[in-house]
Amino acid sequence: MIHVPNRKYVFILLLLTVLSACSGKRDAYFQFKGIENAHWNKNTVYNFVVNMTDTVNTYNIFLEVRNKESYPFRNLWLFVDLRTPEGKLRKDTVNCELADAMGQWHGKGSNLHTLSFPFDQGFRFRIPGTYVYSVKQGMREDELKGISDIGLRVVKQSDH
Q: CA 20 to CA 14: how far, in whole Å?
């Protein structure tokens, strides 16, 4: 005698399979750079080298920030440069809100808060090659304390 599974269990298994396929890894690039002793010197630049061959699809670019509870400000200003394979340079200034007006930290974590900030949505890498994102802190502090990591995530947009 062959056992036929309950329809409910088959449906749940099918649903989980579809959801895992849709939420599968779509990161084309993801990297964090640790900031030594969580002291970010105003002259220190963190480079993220993205090698891209896909010139058809669009991507969402996110800046990733990890801050400690000891960080003394609500926000973090970042200077972000993008150098394309053909040598063009695009400069941006980004304001990352790390806490609300009452001083409550945003993001995941309790002593170390992780946040993701949209930087460039629907971006298409027009030619294949190496794209270099350079990130520098833009605060008025020579030695910015409390930011432990800075990162970049490139996520392929999907139809899901």
A: 10
DSSP designation for 138: -
For residues 71 and 67, what is the distance between their CA atoms, to the nearest angstrom? 6
Taking only the tens place, the pLDDT of each residue in 144-155 is 999 999 999 999
- 79 burial (CB, 10 Å; 0-12 / 13-18 / 19+) is middle
Residue 31 contacts residue 132 (beta carbons within 8 Å): no
Specify whether domain 26-156 bears CATH 2.60.420. no
How far apart, in Å, are the Cα atoms of 154 and each of 33, 51, 123, 159?
Answer: 15, 11, 10, 16
Question: What is the share, in percent, of the chain residues with pLDDT greater than 90?
Answer: 77
The Cβ of residue 36 has, within 10 Å, a number of other Cβ atoms equal to: 9
Domain limits of the chain?
26-156
- The predicted model scores a pTM of 0.81
